[in-house]
Amino acid sequence: MGSREPAEPMSPGDAMQNSARPADRHGLLKHSREFLDFFWDIAKPEQETRLAATEKLLEYLRARPKGSEMKYALKRLITGLGVGRETARPCYSLALAQLLQSFEDLPLCSILQQIQEKYDLHQVKKAMVRPALFANLFGVLALFQSGRLVKDQEALRKSVKLLQALAQYQNHLQEQPRKALVDILSEVSEATLQEMLPEVLSTNLDAMLSCPEQLELFLLAQQKVPSRLKKLVGSVNLFSDENVPRLVNVLKMAASSVKKERKLPAVALELLRLALKEDKFLRFWKGVVEQGLLKLQFWPASYLCFRLLGAALPLLTKEQLQLVMRGDVIRHYGEHTCTAKLPNQFKFAPEMEEYVGTFLEGCRDDPERQLAVLVAFSSATNHGLPVVPTFWRVVRFLSPRALQGYVAWLQGMFLQPDLDSLIDLSTSSQKKAQDASLHVPERAVFRLRKWIILRLVSLVDSLHLEMEEALTEQVARFCLFHSFFITKKPTSQIPETRQQLSLPLESQAREAVSSAFFSLLQTLSTQFKLAPEQTRGGQPWTYRLVQFADLLLNHSHSVTPVTPLTAQQHQAWDRMLQTLKELEAASSEPRAAAFQHLLLLVGIHLFKVLECDLLGHPDLHQKSWGERRRGSRTKAIDPQEPPWVEVLVEILLALLAQPSHLIRQVARSVFGHVCSHLTPRALQLILDVLNPETNENEDDHVVVTDESDERWLKAAEDKSEDGENRGSDSEDQSEGEESEEEERDGDVDQGFREQLMSVLQAGKALGGEESEDEEELGDEAMMALDQSLASLFAEQKLRIQARRDEKSKLQKEKALRRDFQIRVLDLVEVLVTKQPENVLVLELLEPLLSIIRRSLRSSSSKQEQDLLHKTARIFTHHLCRGRRYCRDLGDRVEALHGQVAQLVEQAGRQPDSSTALYHFNASLYLLRVLKGSTAEGRVHETQEELEAGTNPSPAPEGPQAAGCLDLNLAMRVYSSALSSFLTKRHSPLTVPMFLSLFSRHPVLCKSLLPVLVQHVTGPGRPHQQAQACLLLQKTLSMREVRSCFQDPEWKQLIGQVLTKVTENLRTLGEAQTKAEHQQALSSLELLNTVFRTCKHEKLTLDLTVLLGVLQRQQQGLRQGAHSTSSSRLLDLYWQAMKTLGAPQDPGGGGCCPHWLEKKDTKEIPSTTQSPISRKRKKKGFLPETKKRKKHTSEDGTPAATGGSQSSSTGRKRNRTKAKVLAQANGTPTTKGPAPGTPTLSPSTPAKSPKLRKKNQKLSQVNGAPGSSTKPAGQKQPQEVLPKKGVLDKSSPSTLARKKARPPLVIRSPSLLQSGAKKKNTLRFTISSSKK
After folding, report:
1. More confident residue, 758 or 716
2. Which of 343, 809, 1131, 1325 is most buried when burial is the number of CB atoms within 10 A of its CB?
3. What is the pLDDT of residue 620?
4. Closest Cα partner for 602 from 591, 613, 586?
5. CA distance 1034 to 1016
6. Are 1017 and 1025 in contact (CB under 8 A)?
7. How would you label 928-954 residue by residue, b for 16+ Cβ within 10 Å and e otherwise?
8. What does pTM read for this prediction?
9. Half-sphere exposure of residue 342, counting CA atoms within 13 Å on the CB side?
């Protein structure tokens, strides 16, 4: 930087306190610290901080407009323009601009002169040229940003000359000065521009076309002062054949300059406007853009063409749009969209989407241009697939007329694909591959039709609220017709038959259309549920589609289904229509609406599934309207449990048994309508399916059927066989052979062995020792033996195969049941998500936990894992962590309390922590329900007990007392669990479980803390004691727990914890096992947490015993200092000792950790150091072996060095000596003080001039007991100076009159912090008590 920045090397506070500076060269002491801090905040990287500091600086200067602060502020900001930090220069420039804008009386010429004088380019050193250049540039920019430069002609001319001079330093500033010059001249008036134009614009055409800035100046003059420009350079045709290559080079340079900013250069947009103004757009687009920039094969130039295309859309007519949108630019954009697929590649599609959205939003009154642009982008295809996504958010800006035209174009292209009218493109890799299969017309037609049908569905999804009802119905009818029907001949009654397919719709394409239709059906059914008044007559969209399908079925001479319906299916369809007509009169009732919705969805899915079993189910029709007719005559037997809900649940379970994803969606949708009317019996039907005990031993009534079950079982077999085949490919052949051998060995039973032995004995094939000399068997005997063996092994093979088939059947049935349970969990998820306040949700805890327990035990197969993951997700995220829960329990309070106890007991009996966590979370969920719920009986009973005075337990106050939770019972339950956790050797409970309990229910934590503190020490195992310390450490840091304690209770608790920790630390350094070592670590961590709590809460506690215990264990820690495992222990030990104020033992070797070795000399006064000033200590540190030893006199007083006895350094040196000696007396050296001699706290400052005479006495306190002027047991009078950072609230006279305190006391930081700025550590008062 050109010159030294004032006050930047150090803070203003240090500048005022540092007495080593001989004189105040910069006048810092004249200004307040608040004023000087503004300039520090201005240079910070946070934008909010910079803006706030600038605003505060302006307010400060407005209050003192004539003071010296204004001169200093200008000098400081000008200095900041050339600082070495590049990020700080724009900050100072912006602050200077705001200052000049607020104070218009400051002359700009004077400011510019100061900048030029401070950063003179001719006198600056070579190393400081770059900061000086940027200082001049940012200075001019500050003048321009103030808004006053264009009004001051003299300053404007000087600034322009300076920018022209700066433009020569392109190595440092590049094109920034010329850009700034263009920006300034674009704001001046026409008269000023006419005067200055000869000075800034070159008359040579080659120079004008040499860089983008010169060309931009030319275009600016062409726009504002064309007559003056014509006089200077004459008539210029920029778009001539000679100038087109120059324009291409200039635009290439402009594209490179904005490569990082990713924006359109202004010169390119001005050229486009000039071409449109001179009616030379076609020449500009073809010559400069398509034939020039695109041919460069330079991506920044290509991106410039894309941005130019997006910016040109609002400026072009319909004919020009059609010309541009079918050119090379859109083709090149399509290639980029197809190739930019990787995550780290730059994608221009979002930016183009913004351009198109801005264009469509700006021309809503011109639907023809909107339609032209949208059709053009949809026509750019890669082998039939358009490059724009099916879901494009820009369609929300389409006018109704343009949207209707776009839908008509999509439908026409679907029916009669015209590949010649599309812009087909191929990527470079596709061109190199030359695969003939990619260029097949059928493939392109299929890709195009699939995209079109998805685009139609996405239009309804995104615009169903703004879309006209007729247009929505048109799209839905179009999708339904081409999913399941074929036109035989056109008819006027069905508009969909007027246009026939030019190419037949293949089965694969029809499958894609049907899938898109059912997605659209889901959207329409949701829309009707949210806004039923938007449909005609209030009818659901599904009902209108069913009517359209019935119309198509009745016109069999014109339309035929893709798969003709059988007579039974026709009968089921007609019966469904009849039931719908009867339900239409009572559609407002929940039962009628639910059955109507179910019938409609199942009826439409008939065309896809082609099964009429459920559609013709008698309960589906009888229970839907038969009960309604009976209900009008007689009353229901049990109005609380209407049977229609149970019937509907049974039907939904039957639907879920089908292996169809569409039917699964139907069941979810219908159950979402009726889950608010669910009854306990209906819920029990669902839980019976999820109950593993019932399903393992009994055949399920839904899964096991005659024909359908065989079909579903076959589908499951095929699915499992495919999975086995896929999995077997990755296995080794040897493993398969070994498994087969093991199976063969396992299939051989004892009965087969006996039969084999009998056959061999009958054939005399078994010879013993006596038969060695006998003759061999004859041929006939051998043949008979072979036949017997063959028949025996054939029977055995049949038995083995039968057993395998039976085992395989059982496994597949089990897999089928697991798959069915996964589907039934959809209903549970819908209930928990949509009706979390329902009291029936509480009945789901035990079944879900049962599934989790069983799946965790046997989660080997993929189905078991899927079932476990889905159950755990529903249980954890939707149930336990849900924001809504049941608040009206009624008479379930007692049962829920028992369930809480049962869940906690089960959690403690689980084999592992993962299973116990779910049970523990379930108990916490019930606690939240009980805490936030209301029960009339419970409240009434509590009020009676309070009035009668029979309730011995005091009720908690505040928000914790709400609800019907029995705190005593909950405390007993969790106290038992906590004791088990802290005493049991292998407990499944963990620390995070109890931390979750304490954070959610701090009132329980208050009752459980005594149990926790009790287990910190005692006869327990070291591992459990370490767990207790860890849990207590985390608990003491919780704000929720602290809010439940009064100040005396909290202080008493902290004292109990310190007592227990002190007892644990008596064995510090004696750990022999890993558990004991972990116990020591946890104890020290807990101790440091207690220290932080005491400092924050400003507590006063006796720490004498603790300090003595820690000091006695120092020798044991020093012996194990070189162990790797004890490094953390040493760090924690010295952290505690540092907090207590105990100094490092110089003979301790490596016991002191590294952080204390570096900071101890600054923060903790050492008794062995010589009284030298801080400035001398900053020069470095000597090792212990090189330090000079202090000579001790016979009376124990350290002898002062020669330097300390010299009095030639004056009064300031004596004051420093007295302060250091007073601090050194806080800890005894070789010989301690006599009994009863008071010891001064290290925090006692000795800086006041009134205490100079006392300092001479204080320096001999340790060696001369009789020198004290106060009797034993009293402290020396303290006088604390009011400095910043000191929170002292007691006066010195009050402290002097106080009696002696215990030997070592933690005091509040407000009383014990030192007055020095850099000493913020907690201090302790050391004194002797009078016995």
Report:
1. 758
2. 1325
3. 54
4. 613
5. 14
6. yes
7. bbbbebebeebeeeeeeeeeeeeeeee
8. 0.66
9. 4
